[in-house]
Amino acid sequence: MSHEKVFNGTVVLENEVLENGYIGVTDGKITEISSEKLTGEKEIDLNGKVIFPGAIDVHVHSFSNPEEGFETTSKLSARGGVTTFLDMPYDLPNPINNTEILKEKIKDLEKNSYVDIGLWGTISKRNGTEKIQDLVDDGVMSFKLSTFETDEYRFPRIPNDEIIKAMKVLADTGILVAFHSEDDEIVKGLSKQFEEENKTHNLAHAETRPPYTETSAVLMLMEFAKWTGAKLHIVHVSHPRTLELIKLFKEMGTDVSAETCYTYLLLDEDDLDKQGPPAKMNPPLRAKEDVAKMWEHLKAGDIDLISSDHIVWDIKDKEKGYENIFKSPSGLPGVEIIVRVMYDAMINRHSMSYNAFAKLMSTNAAERFSIKGKGKIEQGYDADFTVIDPNEEWEFQQENFETNIDLLPFKGRKFKGNIVASIIRGETVFDGKELQVEPGYGKFIEGSEIK
Fold first, then answer.
1. pLDDT tens, position by position, for the chain (451 residues)?
2. Of 379, 390, 406, which is closest to residue 339 (Cα–Cα)?
3. Which of 51, 49, 128, 56 is nearest to 96 (CA)?
4. How many domains in the chain?
5. 157 shares its domain with 203
6. CA-CA distance, 277 to 62, in Å (whole number)?
């Protein structure tokens, strides 16, 4: 059997690794996998490189800063080995809470993206549940709501009665509902108190968002999910206590999953204390001993997937936090760096397996979000691959990234393992140096088609 293309290298399958494996690809799909040599019209030799299923980042904000957008974000995604991402709904100026705005966003995606993208939807503060079914019908993959309010219109805190209504509706659709989980009243009250007392030092950000602001919100949401039958997903889990509670509810039969971000595994509150704005995010970074426990939970299988929570703010806005940490917007970039830094952390520093890396960076996301044909190197699946050179050593310097690294708290750190190719539907989108396709190559992944 001959194929259009054959890729050869160390191939990471779901439960095994082919040290010298071959992947046959035709029409963008995987047609054969073998440890024996395959023939193709074009043969791509990746000997010595590791071929993972294309990484999937379920937590990306392309439009919270309107100066960014799909072309810029998807370029960073391709350069970072992320072949598919799900874009969050909290766009500026208008969140994705009705079909008119959704349809415009899809047009933008299909014109400008380098990678494949699915879209999150959300609801307005009151009576938003009326729009849920229409958004589902038009292709939204999942819904994101919040118990904490950043902006009354764009990023509102959804009242509890509306959360219950939304969960009931979404339980009937089978679509996932995810939450930013922090207690609004506690955070706002502590923040007001600290500012009045002129406590605006870097660690004040963490001190006004203690772990119980997260755990209490997650407990409430899991109890709501138990009674409504909703498929619940908790984004950016920052503390091991939250994971303990999620594990308990899973054991009791609640359909809940846990996502953490690369930041909560690689950084701690000492980084916030020393660096300030580049290390400011919501929820905040936690104590060093809590990060160690997060790794224990990761290895035990209590974390379902890892995301970036990518957002790019104007450097001038972030710098406002150097005098008063509350003045800096929260969040940092990640889609260009998450795969390579997590590879080094998981494989080199924590001796985890290639299979575990693939599950946490791709397979589990595809399964939890029902992303058909992605997340595995398997016959019939899209030929999406993230290719890593396990031996390439690099330093976190601006020359290695298009992302402005002044927005990141990793300067000067050294890593091993780098992206040498991002392949989407059989096409090399990024060759380790430059993008090889035009904007618009990326496709919209329609959620309603995969339920």
1. 789 999 999 999 999 999 999 999 999 999 999 999 999 999 999 999 999 999 999 999 999 998 999 999 999 999 999 999 999 999 999 999 999 999 999 999 999 999 999 999 999 998 889 999 999 999 999 999 999 998 888 899 999 999 999 999 999 999 999 999 999 999 999 999 999 999 999 999 999 999 999 999 999 999 999 999 999 999 999 999 999 999 999 999 999 999 999 999 999 999 999 999 999 999 999 999 999 999 999 999 999 999 999 999 999 999 999 999 999 999 999 999 999 999 999 999 999 999 999 999 999 999 999 999 999 999 999 999 999 999 999 999 998 899 999 999 999 999 999 999 999 999 999 999 999 999 999 999 998 544 4
2. 390
3. 128
4. 2
5. yes
6. 20
Q: Kindly report the pTM of this predicted structure.
A: 0.97
Quote the tokens at residue 357. Answer: 């890396």
Co-location of 320 and 343 in the same domain:
yes
Which of 368, 390, 410 is a domain's end point? 368
Q: Which residue has the tokens 């959300």?
A: 122
- Residue 132 sits in a domain whose CATH number is 3.20.20.140
Same structural domain for residues 353 and 259?
yes
Q: Which parts of 208-260 fold into alpha helices (H)?
A: 211-228, 240-251
Decide if 241 is inside a domain. Answer: yes
Query: SS3 of 149, please?
Result: coil
Question: Which domain does 80 fall in, by range?
Answer: 54-368
Query: Is 348 a domain residue?
Result: yes
